[in-house]
Specification:
The chain is mainly beta and about 150 residues long. It is about 10% helix and about 50% strand. The protein has a four-stranded antiparallel sheet, with no helix packed on it. Strands 2-10-7 form a three-stranded mixed sheet, with no helix packed on it. A three-stranded antiparallel sheet has the order 4-8-9, with no helix packed on it.
């Protein structure tokens, strides 16, 4: 009887820990035209702890960090995810370096892989059309309006 209880306990422990745990970073593009933003998303799956986003140099923060989390319990199996996404715009042509982010749990520290994004020249000042979902088309950037001079009569 004692062996049966031990085996049942071990199997339930294996089922709880059977969920794959990971901490990754996804970058919207490996190259971008100057003047266009890039999305960076840090994602933790089946981890409980604190996410630390690295400081990014050579970019302006356009939006974020936007954080989201979810938790699912299906037939007793629990899974969870947590993400932080941000949009950055390169300040210069060349290379953007995205250092490793970290996720600290009670028993370990997870690190994401560093990434690089190539920022290409953009002489036509093209920009990505974000108003159309799923669109990767580039449209000319409109010229800024000139201020009109007002004279009183």
């Amino acid at each position: 009887m004692n062996y049966g209880i031990c085996i049942l306990f071990l199997l339930s422990t294996i089922m709880l820990n059977g969920q794959e745990r990971s901490f990754t970073v996804e970058v919207g593009a490996d190259s971008v035209l100057f003047g266009n933003p890039v999305e960076i998303r840090f994602m933790a799956r089946n981890l409980v702890g604190q996410m630390t986003i690295p400081d990014l140099e050579g970019v302006a923060m356009v939006a974020g960090p936007n954080r989201s989390s979810s938790m699912q319990i299906i037939n007793g199996a629990t899974s969870r995810s947590e993400s932080a996404s941000l949009f950055v715009q390169p300040e210069n042509e060349g290379m953007i370096y995205i250092p490793s982010a970290s996720f600290i749990t009670s028993d370990s520290t997870w690190k994401s892989r560093p990434h690089q994004v190539v920022v290409l020249p953009n002489p036509q000042k093209l920009r990505r059309n974000y108003n159309v979902p799923g669109s990767n088309t580039l449209v000319p950037r409109p010229e800024p309006r000139k201020k009109l001079k007002i004279t009183k009569i």
